[in-house]
From TrEMBL:
<feature type="transmembrane region" description="Helical">
    <location>
        <begin position="105"/>
        <end position="126"/>
    </location>
</feature>
<dbReference type="InterPro" id="IPR036640">
    <property type="entry name" value="ABC1_TM_sf"/>
</dbReference>
<feature type="transmembrane region" description="Helical">
    <location>
        <begin position="184"/>
        <end position="205"/>
    </location>
</feature>
<dbReference type="InterPro" id="IPR039421">
    <property type="entry name" value="Type_1_exporter"/>
</dbReference>
<keyword id="KW-0812">Transmembrane</keyword>
<dbReference type="Pfam" id="PF00005">
    <property type="entry name" value="ABC_tran"/>
</dbReference>
<dbReference type="InterPro" id="IPR027417">
    <property type="entry name" value="P-loop_NTPase"/>
</dbReference>
<feature type="domain" description="ABC transporter">
    <location>
        <begin position="391"/>
        <end position="630"/>
    </location>
</feature>
<keyword id="KW-0472">Membrane</keyword>
<protein>
    <submittedName>
        <fullName>ABC transporter ATP-binding protein</fullName>
    </submittedName>
</protein>
<keyword id="KW-0547">Nucleotide-binding</keyword>
<dbReference type="InterPro" id="IPR003439">
    <property type="entry name" value="ABC_transporter-like_ATP-bd"/>
</dbReference>
<keyword id="KW-1133">Transmembrane helix</keyword>
<feature type="transmembrane region" description="Helical">
    <location>
        <begin position="316"/>
        <end position="338"/>
    </location>
</feature>
<dbReference type="GO" id="GO:0005524">
    <property type="term" value="F:ATP binding"/>
</dbReference>
<dbReference type="InterPro" id="IPR003593">
    <property type="entry name" value="AAA+_ATPase"/>
</dbReference>
<feature type="transmembrane region" description="Helical">
    <location>
        <begin position="211"/>
        <end position="228"/>
    </location>
</feature>
Length: 644
C-alpha cells in the first residue's frame, strides 16, 4: 500500500512507547482543527488569523477598554512616526545629493533633519508609554481569564470531575492556556502596530521603485512559514501528552506537599515514586525530542530561503543603481527603507508566529470554557423549596462516568419531617451516592428525587442546599480561620449565636477552646500562627459545619469515623436533638449507633434490600441482622456470659 505524505511525516515523529498504558488524548468536538495541526497549510493558518486577532481584542476590551484603546493608539502612532522618519530621510538625501554648494544643501536639508529628530524623539516617548499600558493590560487579561476559568469550572456538574477528558482539558487550559492569554494580547498589539508600520514603509518603498515591495515581502515569508510549522508540531505533541503531563503534575504535587510527606516516608515510597516520575518525564522528553529534527529542518529551510531572497533583493538594488534606473539619493533611501522594512517584517512575522503559537494554547483555555458550559446545569427558575415535609426517592438509577456497573439500581425510599433515617450497608453499596443525589450534587440517570413532591431537577441547586446541612465523609479544612471553616459561605459575618450552638452540639467547642487564637486561628500550620488538627478534631469541625446551617435536612455521612466513644455519643445525641426540628439522614457503618433511628434503610450493591426499625430488621434475619451480629460479636468479652 502506498504511504501518503502525512503517513510518512507521522512515522518520522512517532512517539516512543509510554512507560505504562495511558489513555489517548481526547478529540476536540469544539475545535476539531486542533487535531490536524501538524498538516494544516500555512494559507489556512493565515485565513484564521483575523478571527483569532478579533477574539484576542474582545478579551482585551473586556479586561480594560481604556488600556486596550491606549495601547493600540500609542503603537499605531509610533509606527506612523517610524514611516515619517523614513520619508524625512528621503528628503535629507535628496537635498544632500542635489547640485550646488555644500552649505546651501545642508541648509536645505535642515527642515527634514529637524522633522526626523522630532519624529524619533516622539516615537521613543510613545513606545515607552505603550509598553507601560501593554504591561497593565496583560495583567488585567490574565486576571479576567483566570476568574472566567475558575467561575466556569466551579459551576460544572460534580460528575464531570470523574471524566478523564474533562480533567485533561482543565489541565491544558490552566497549565498553559491561562499563561498565554496575556501574552496573546501583547502579540496582537504588536501585529497591529507592525502592520500599520509596514503599510507606511511599503508606501515609501513603492514610491521609490515598485519592484522593491514584492522582494521585501519575499525575504521574510520563508521564516514565517518555518515558525508556524515548528509551532504546530510542538503544540500537537504537547496536546497528545496531556494525560501524561497531568500525571506528572500529580506526582510532583504528591511528592512535595505536606499532606503526603508523612506517608511517603512511612511506606518508603520515595524511591518508587521517583522511579515512576522519572519514567514519565523521560517519556515526555523523548516524545518532544522526536520532533526536534523536523523543527530544526523547517527553521533551517526558512532561514536559508530568506537569506537567498535578501541577497537577491540587494543585488537587484545594486543592478538598478549601476544601470542608471535609480538615482544615488533614491538608492540610498531605498537601502535604508529595505533594512527598516525587513526589520519591521521580521518583527511582524515573529509576532504572528508567537501569536499563532499562543492562540493554540489559548484555544485550550477556550475549550475548557466551552466544555464547562456544556456541563453546567441549566439555570432553574421557579420558587425556592419550602420547609421539608417529605423527601422521596423513586426508582433512582445512577452511574458514574466510565464506570462498568451502575452505583444505584432502582433505589426508592422516603424521609419525613422530623425523622432520623439511617442508611447502612457494606462498602460500595451506594450509601454516599444516595446522599450526594439528595444534596443535588448529582442528578439521577433515571427516576426522581423529590422535595415535597417537587423534582430536584426543577429546584435551583443553590437554594436547595441552603436548606441542607451536610456532614460529608470526605470533608476538607480550608486554609482559613476556624470561624470560616464552620460558617463557610457566611465567613466572618457568621451568626455568633448559631455558630456557638453548632460548636456545642458537635463538640467542636472543645477544639476551638484549645486553639491559640480561638475562632480566629487559621487551620493550617503552613501559615503564620496556624494550627493543625487531629482526625477527630477535624471531624468535629466538619460536624459543626453541618449543624451551623438553618437546615430542614441534615445529611451525616460517616460523621463519627474518627471520633472517640465519648465524642461519638455526644454527636449522636446532638443529631437526635437536631431531629426535633429537622430530618436527619445518617449514613454509617457503626450499626450500634443506628438503633435510635426511626427507620433503617439497608443497601447492597446499589439496591435497597431491607427497610424497618432495628428490632424489625434483627427479627427478620436478613443482611442487617448478619452485619449487626458480626459487629456485636466484636464487642463481646470472652468468659463474661459463662461467669454470669
Amino acid at each position: 500500500m502506498r504511504r501518503t505524505r502525512t503517513d510518512r511525516a507521522r512515522s518520522r515523529t512517532r512517539r516512543p512507547a509510554p512507560p505504562w498504558e495511558l489513555p489517548e488524548f481526547a478529540k476536540s468536538k469544539y475545535y476539531p482543527w486542533l487535531e490536524e495541526m501538524g498538516s494544516i497549510p500555512v494559507r489556512r493558518v493565515a485565513a484564521r488569523l483575523p478571527g483569532q486577532v478579533a477574539t484576542a481584542l474582545r478579551w482585551a476590551w473586556r479586561a480594560s477598554p481604556r488600556d486596550t484603546a491606549t495601547v493600540i493608539g500609542l503603537n499605531v502612532a509610533s509606527a506612523v512616526l517610524a514611516a515619517s522618519v523614513l520619508a524625512a530621510l528621503a528628503g535629507i538625501l535628496n537635498e544632500l545629493f542635489a547640485e550646488g554648494p555644500t552649505p546651501e544643501r545642508i541648509r536645505a536639508a535642515l527642515p527634514s533633519l529637524v522633522l526626523a529628530g522630532t519624529a524619533i524623539t516622539a516615537r521613543a516617548a510613545l513606545r515607552t508609554a505603550a509598553i507601560r499600558s501593554q504591561g497593565r493590560l496583560r495583567h488585567q487579561v490574565e486576571l479576567l481569564a483566570e476568574t472566567e476559568l475558575l467561575g466556569a469550572v466551579t459551576a460544572v456538574r460534580l460528575e464531570s470531575f470523574d471524566e478523564s477528558d474533562f480533567c485533561d482539558a482543565v489541565y491544558r487550559g490552566r497549565d498553559r492556556g491561562l499563561h498565554e492569554a496575556g501574552r496573546m494580547i501583547g502579540y496582537t498589539v504588536d501585529i497591529l502596530a507592525e502592520t500599520v508600520g509596514i503599510i507606511a514603509v511599503a508606501s515609501v518603498v513603492t514610491v521609490l521603485h515598485p519592484v522593491l515591495l514584492p522582494l521585501l515581502a519575499a525575504t521574510v515569508l520563508p521564516v514565517g512559514w518555518a515558525a508556524a510549522r515548528s509551532a504546530r508540531m510542538q503544540y500537537r505533541r504537547m496536546r497528545e501528552l496531556s494525560t501524561t503531563n497531568r500525571l506528572l503534575y500529580i506526582h510532583t504535587f504528591t511528592m512535595t506537599q505536606r499532606e503526603t510527606a508523612a506517608e511517603l516516608r512511612a511506606y518508603n515510597m520515595r524511591t518508587p515514586m521517583l522511579a515512576d516520575y522519572t519514567a514519565l518525564a523521560r517519556y515526555v522528553r523523548d516524545s518532544l525530542l522526536a520532533i526536534v529534527g523536523r523543527q530544526t529542518a523547517a527553521r533551517a529551510t526558512g532561514e536559508a530561503a530568506s537569506g537567498a531572497v535578501t541577497l537577491a533583493t540587494y543585488a537587484a538594488l545594486v543592478w538598478m543603481l549601476l544601470g542608471g534606473w535609480m538615482p544615488l539619493a533614491v538608492a540610498g533611501t531605498a537601502y535604508v527603507a529595505l533594512g527598516q522594512g525587513k526589520a519591521a517584517l521580521d518583527r511582524l512575522v515573529n509576532a504572528v508566529a508567537s501569536f499563532y503559537e499562543a492562540s493554540l494554547y489559548f484555544s485550550d483555555f477556550l475549550e475548557v470554557l466551552d466544555q464547562a458550559r456544556d456541563r453546567t446545569p441549566t439555570p432553574v427558575g421557579g420558587p425556592p423549596p419550602g420547609p421539608l415535609e417529605e423527601l422521596r426517592l423513586d426508582d433512582v438509577h445512577f452511574s458514574y462516568p466510565g464506570a462498568d456497573a451502575p452505583a444505584l439500581r432502582g433505589v426508592s425510599f422516603r424521609l419525613r419531617k422530623g425523622e432520623v433515617v439511617a442508611v447502612v450497608g457494606p462498602n460500595g453499596s451506594g450509601k454516599t451516592t444516595v446522599s450526594t443525589l439528595i444534596s443535588g450534587l448529582f442528578a439521577p440517570d433515571r427516576g426522581t428525587v423529590a422535595w415535597n413532591g417537587r423534582d430536584l431537577a426543577d429546584i435551583d441547586p443553590e437554594r436547595l442546599r441552603e436548606r441542607i446541612g451536610a456532614m460529608r465523609q470526605n470533608h476538607s479544612l480550608w486554609p482559613a480561620t476556624a470561624r470560616r471553616n464552620v460558617a463557610m459561605a457566611e465567613g466572618e459575618t457568621a451568626d455568633e449565636g448559631r455558630l456557638h450552638r453548632a460548636l456545642a452540639l458537635s463538640g467542636a467547642d472543645e477544639v476551638v477552646g484549645e486553639l491559640p487564637r480561638g475562632l480566629d486561628t487559621v487551620l493550617d500550620r503552613r501559615f503564620k500562627d496556624g494550627a493543625d488538627l487531629s482526625g477527630g478534631q477535624r471531624q468535629r469541625i466538619a460536624a459543626a459545619r453541618g449543624l451551623y446551617q438553618r437546615a430542614d435536612l441534615i445529611i451525616a455521612d460517616e460523621p463519627t469515623a474518627a471520633l472517640d466513644a465519648y465524642a461519638e455519643q455526644r454527636l449522636f445525641d446532638s443529631l437526635q436533638h437536631a431531629a426535633r426540628g429537622a430530618t436527619v439522614l445518617l449514613i454509617t457503618h457503626r450499626l450500634a449507633s443506628v438503633r435510635m433511628a426511626d427507620r433503617i434503610v439497608v443497601m447492597d450493591r446499589g439496591r435497597v434490600v431491607e427497610q424497618g426499625t432495628h428490632d424489625e430488621l434483627v427479627r427478620r434475619g436478613g443482611l442487617y441482622a448478619e452485619l449487626y451480629s458480626i459487629q456485636a460479636a466484636a464487642y463481646e468479652v470472652p468468659g463474661v456470659e459463662e461467669a454470669s
